[in-house]
Amino acid sequence: MLVAVLVPATLICVAAVAAPRWAGGDDPSASASAAGPEPSGSGPAPRPAATSSSPTAKPRTTTAPPTRSPAPSRSAAQRAGRPPRVPASGPGTFAVARAGASSGGGNAYRVEVENGSGVDPDEAAARIADVLAAPRGWAHGGARSFHQVAEGPAGLVIRIATPATTDRICATGDMNTHGEVNCRLAEVVMVNLKRWQSGSPEFHGPLADYRALIINHEVGHWLGHGHETCPGRGRTAPAMMQQIYGLKGCVSNAWPYDAKGQYLGGPSVR
């Protein structure tokens, strides 16, 4: 059963901007440490969520890539190579992803999708779980694990929302997303539906990779990483780079680590 979750009236964010500052993954916050907890060990302690009953689903963690859910049937627009239609606004209520949820653990997170967005919450959660468990992601080398929950404590909430809803929630943290990009406010990551469904014209790669960049960039902020920029022409763009504003000579990249486990960083942006 899908549960509708009302958007909180206020979300805490101590970052304030005089002009829009968007991230390459692509949020307007200038750094993670300004709005969220510093990383400690395997990540921040979970925070209480709106519900407290225990789920009955069999526990599962994302320390290893989870089994992918069957892909949904492709729409006519997708078969024609066009991105699906993105509604400009929605009701501001969210359905919680329940398939694959566990009873919690370190780095517990919840996935919510705005009602009427056209995105299946469980399908989106499966894709996000894959990203969080990937060897080149933040769980590389077993450094940390992430646990999807449907109820109970969750220190991270990932919401996919229409542009208007994203703008409204991000504005509570004095961030102007212009109907185009994502933001993060404390433990809440707002993923703009437009970016989730159509990617970015500046990112040279498949949509699945751009979705991975969104999640890696925003979770990187949540773990305490700030923005970085291109380390040199022809080199790999950091996942913490604002890639939506251009690559500055770097090559598009969605992942914080390379295949050998080396961090793909660049000069810090203050």
Largest pleated sheet:
7 strands, mixed
How many E strands? 7
Classification by helices and strands: alpha/beta
Average residue pLDDT: 76
Number of helices: 5
Oligomer: single chain
Question: Strand share of the residues?
Answer: 5-15%
Helix proportion range: 10-25%
Radius of gyration: 17 Å
Elements, N to C (H/E):
EHEEHEEHEEHH
Shape: globular
Low-confidence stretches: 1-25, 29-80
Distance between the termini: 44 Å
Give the gist of this structure.
With 270 residues, this protein is α/β, with parallel strands linked by helices. Helix content is 18%, strand content 11%. The chain contains five helices and seven strands.
Give the key terms:
270 residues; alpha/beta; 7-stranded mixed sheet; 5 helices; globular
Topology at a glance:
Layout: E1 4-6, H1 76-79, E2 93-96, E3 108-114, H2 121-133, E4 147-148, E5 156-161, H3 163-171, E6 183-185, E7 188-192, H4 193-198, H5 207-222
Parallel strand pairs: 3-4, 3-5, 5-7
Antiparallel strand pairs: 1-2, 2-3, 6-7
Helix pairs in contact: 2-5
Describe this structure in words.
The protein has about 270 residues and is of the alpha/beta class. The chain has five helices and seven strands. Helix 2 (about 120-135) links the parallel strand 3 (about 110-115) and strand 4.
